[in-house]
Amino acid sequence: MARTAKQSLGDRGEQLVAKRVRCPGCKPSERTLRVLPSNFKCADIICDFCGYLAQVKTKSVKGPLPSDCPTILPGSAWGPQQERMVAGIYFSLFIVLENDDGAMRIFFLPRDLQSSGMFVPRRPLSATAKRAGWQGFMIDVSKALGRPVRYVDGSADEFRLDV
């Protein structure tokens, strides 16, 4: 089945992080982040050296890229996220913004600055929905213990996937 526009957007964000970002855990001189298979619960990338796991959330924006990270982002499945929070497990979060021209900006929120209050469950889908009963969540980064920081590589803070 063909990927939806939102799935393709998410794929581009994951590819950009894997291509341009050094692992926040081991900080090697080489890029060691790799994209995990689709539907891996609560994580999108892994460092193939130290095993560091992180989520990537990608959002499209109109016009120029904002200098600040958006406050509200769509999450994914609430059940697995809630189970990890109860266990005290959080994965760092890369937030990728892509504008109409294909320019992209990366923000980073480490796991140590996350709190359970920033993950807000949505209502389950109705009984008539295609995925009846499925429940997602929203991420409210204003409820984190600190603001996401803009990722910079040298002097570059705006990227393109194809370059």
Question: How would you characterize the overall build of this protein?
Answer:
- By secondary structure, the chain is an alpha+beta fold.
- It has a single domain (5-150), classed as 3-Layer(aba) Sandwich (PvuII Endonuclease, Chain A).
- It contains 2 helices and 9 strands, in the order αββββαβββββ.
- The protein has helices at residues 5-20, 78-86; strands at residues 33-35, 45-47, 53-60, 72-77, 92-98, 104-109, 119-121, 136-140, 149-150.
- A 6-stranded mixed β-sheet has the order 1-2-3-5-6-9.
- A hairpin with a 5-residue loop joins β5 and β6.
- The longest helix has 16 residues, at 5-20.
- The chain is globular, with a radius of gyration of 16 Å.
- The two termini are 28 Å apart.
- The mean pLDDT is 94.
Question: Which labels suit this protein?
Answer:
163 residues, alpha+beta, PvuII Endonuclease, Chain A, six-stranded mixed sheet, three-stranded antiparallel sheet, 2 helices
Short description:
The protein is 15% helix and 26% strand. It has 163 residues and is an alpha+beta fold.
Number of discrete helical segments: 2
Count of β-strands:
9
Name the overall outline: globular
Q: Give the radius of gyration.
A: 16 Å
What portion of residues belong to β-strands? 25-35%
Provide the helix percentage. Answer: 10-25%
In CATH terms, the superfamily is Dam replacing family, catalytic PD-(D/E)XK domain
Q: What's the average pLDDT?
A: 94
Strand order of the largest sheet: 1-2-3-5-6-9
Indicate the CATH topology: PvuII Endonuclease, Chain A
Count of all domains: 1
Name the CATH class.
Alpha Beta
Structural class: alpha+beta
Poorly predicted parts: none
CATH architecture: 3-Layer(aba) Sandwich
Largest sheet composition: 6 strands, mixed
From the N-terminal CA to the C-terminal CA, the straight-line distance is: 28 Å
Q: Could you spell the SSE succession in H and E letters? A: HEEEEHEEEEE
